[in-house]
Structure formats: C-alpha cells, structure tokens
Description:
Bound molecules: 3,4-dihydroxyphenylalanine
Low-confidence stretches: none
Number of strands: 10
Helix content: 40-55%
CATH topology of the largest domain: BirA Bifunctional Protein, domain 2
Number of helices: 12
CATH class of the largest domain: Alpha Beta
Distance between the termini: 37 Å
CATH architecture of the largest domain: 2-Layer Sandwich
Shape: elongated
Radius of gyration: 28 Å
Amino acid sequence: MLQNIEKILEEARQFNAETREEIEQFRIRYLGKKGVLADLFKNFKQVPAEQKKEVGQKINQLKQFISSRIEELILAASVEVTGKESTDLTLPGPPLQLGARHPISIVRNQIIDIFGRLGFTISEGPEIEDDWHVFSALNFPPEHPARDMQDTFFIEKDPDILLRTHTSSVQVRVMEKEKPPIRTISPGRVFRNEAISARAHCIFHQVEGLYIDENVSFADLKQILLYFTHEMFGKDVDIRLRPSYFPFTEPSAEMDINCQICGGKGCNVCKYSGWLEILGCGMVDPNVLEFTGIDSKKYTGYAFGMGIERVAMLKYQVRDLRLYFENDIRFLEQFQAAH
Ligand code: DAH
C-alpha cells in the first residue's frame, strides 16, 4: 500500500494542466467520489493495525499535496487567462500562510494562566524606570554592583533614569498603590548590559510574583512554586530550594527543577548536576514593605521572579537564547500554542 501511495504521489507531481477542464479532470480522478483517494480510504480498513498510523499519515499527506497542487494549477491558469478573457472573481485567493505564536508568548500566557487560576492578577509597569523602583525601594545598598554602568543601561543625561533590569520594580509600584491583600504577577521585558551569546542577551523577559497578606509564610511560597512547577512541567518534576541572597527578600532562595534535558542524569546544560535553576524567591524584606508604606508588623509576603526564556528553553529544549530574538520564521513556525 505504501508503495502504491508513493507511486500515486509521483504521478500527481508529474501532472501539469493548462486549462480548467484538465484541472477539473485531475481533481475528479483523485479527489472525486470514486477517485483514487476514495479508493485508498476504502482499502485502509484492511491495513494491519501496526501499519495504520504510517499509512494513514501518508494518505493524508497525499491528499493535502493534491489539494494544494490543484490550487496552484487553478491560480496559474487564471493568471494566464486574465490577459485574454475576463477575470473570475469567484476564484479563491492565493492561500495565506498562517502565523504561529512566539514561544515566549506561549510560555508567558501559560504562566499567566496557571497563576490566574490561583487568584493572581496581572500588573504592569514601565520599562524606562527610575532608581527608586528598580533599586532603592528594593533595598539595594548604594554600592551594589547591579547599579554599575556595566550591568545597567542608564540614560546618559540623567543617571536616575534607567532601563529596568528586572520586573521586581513592578512589585514596588503595586505595593505603593495598593493595600494588602495583594496577589499579583508582573510579566515584562527587562534589559541588562550583557554581551550577547547563546546563554545571555541584553533583552529578555521575566515574570515577577508577589503575595502580601497577614500570616503569609515560606511554606505558602514553597507550595505555590511546587504547584506552578507541576502545572508547567508535569507532575513528576521535582523542585529544590537552595538558600540564596537578594537585597529585597529575607530569607531568600533559588529554586531548581530536575533537568528535563537529561532527565537528571547529568548533561552539559545542567553542568552535570541534574538540576537547573529556574527562579529566585523569598520573603519580602520588612524594609521593602516599610519603604512602600505597608505595615511590616501586620503584614508579611513572598515574592519570586523567573526568566521566561529559561522556562521556554526547558520546555522546548532550545539551548541558544539568540533564537528567541532573531524572528527566523523557520524557528518560529515550529511552536503551537496549546490554547
Ligand atoms: N529580580 C531577581 C532577578 O532579576 C529575581 C528575583 C529574585 C525576584 C527573588 C524576586 C525574588 O521577587 O524574591 O534576578
């Protein structure tokens, strides 16, 4: 049967037609009620179960090929005819190629979806920020290296204005504006003064998370991160929290998940540790609460921040960050949104 399909495909490839009648005959011969494809579908019942998948795919490919060949021929014929006769306005236009969503948008939407189910709202802030929202209100000491020109893009005329280096700036804006309970995530673009390579880029995307209420604990943070991981990567993925340091959280941690690329055995992506870092998190430092006008005696909160490219890299196993920014259609058309 497979050989037969190949033969039909070859015949169809060879076929050429000049006139509408010839094209119509071709259509009837292959796609008509008693045509070649109808025959194939009829015989499909007899194909042994283990070959059904392959044969089915091949028949569908053949059908698609013939349909698009017919469209091409009709188009070519109508172009030729236009000069001599009147144009047939009822003919379908040339097929348009459908676009696909960018993988970063797909992953961002999934993250929004997962946290949305848990009652997190979405908040946004400006990409061009000031020192207060990116650093000072987040408890960065004046001499912190992130404030260095080497890491941050500043506006030359006014060093108080800069491109945000993380979406943590949005949590400051939300805390200044809203009263607890606050439960929000902030997806957005961030900028760092990095040399572009497979592992680093000067533009990338983050999602910040923030929850502030009475009695929020580290256990709540851990639970939500575990839930997120299971929803995003699957139920059998483990997380690991390592103590870390951020000026705006105390205690702070970094979260790893077991490497999806090697299944935890060790590979060059996880540097043979079996684990990959995917986010930073911690309990909001009381200083940050006070800086933004929230009573740190009454309220506690947690925050976390993750890189969307990082999550996408693990989900799709794309190891070169630059691909996300080049907009090469051969890369982009491979991704399908689940919703
Ligand atoms: N802003 C940090 C970064 O860009 C990520 C981060 C770490 C955000 C800890 C947080 C947090 O909210 O609690 O690397």
